[in-house]
Amino acid sequence: MSTSATAPGQFGEIGFATKPMSLWRMTLRRFLRHRMAVVGTVTLILIFLYIIIGSLIFSEAYANYNDTSIRLQPPSPEHPFGTDTVGRDILARTIYGGQISLMIGLLAAVVAVTIGTTVGALSGYYGGLLDAVLMRITEAMLSIPTILLLLVMSKFFSGRIPDVHLLGRTFSGSVIVIIVIIGLTSWMYLARIVRSCFLSLKEEEFVLAAHAMGAPHWRVILVHILPNTLAPIIVAATLGVASAILLEAYISFLGMGVRQPTASWGNMLDGAYQYLEQAPWLWIFPGLLIILTVMSINFVGDGLRDALDPRSEKKV
Fold this sequence. Notes:
The protein has a domain of about 210 residues: MetI-like (MetI-like fold), CATH 1.10.3720.10. The N terminus is likely disordered. The two termini are about 35 Å apart. It contains 13 helices and 2 strands; from the N terminus they run H-H-H-H-H-H-E-E-H-H-H-H-H-H-H. By secondary structure, it is mainly alpha-helical. Helix 4 runs parallel beside helix 13.
């Protein structure tokens, strides 16, 4: 009995022939099947639109303007989120405070990822004495309570950095201090993850072949090994943004974070505990934005972890 080949696109004994999906398309398909990650992504987009479009409607001067004659006013058509203890519009302050909180989260995560990836890559690739020294430093940093270190360093440095004028805005010098401190105290776990990836990947055949062809060490690290560790780095960076936002809220709530009049979601909560019943709008709106942002980022991080894992059980 004769057999005939099935042409592409024709129905045969094994069905329709389909074009293989690329890696990034399969990753996107896995991510979109993670419902909470999609919800988190949409929520984050809405929050970004809120702070971007809102800054086109309200000026920063209006957000910082105080009128004690309307202090502690409840939500109204004129002030949808109410006013704070000195008569500032909470809606406008959540817009500009969101910009600061998200900027702190993103830039602190960039600092942490840069340091953690560098330390982990050098430690895992070269090993030996360098590995021992870098890992002892990492373990020493892990043994220090992060929040305690943040409080001490922010108290020491916050008044020593002048205000920064950038893109027509004035940022409190404490913003820079918090970004640097959070970044310098958040890289250790990523360093250990990257180190373990490098330890396993540097023995793979494609790395040994690169060495045999005379590739320099920097090229092996940047071109051959590092791209294969992007999945844990991306996930760690995503979750690091949420962690940095929460850390900023912690220390700002304790009065040692972003200095007034620069608003952040964290320092908007500072003092609100005195009005938990009399003026709940002081903490409801910034608190709700912090919760929505952090939860959305965590959902996106979970979705990226599943999508970037080639052994994911989610079928494409």
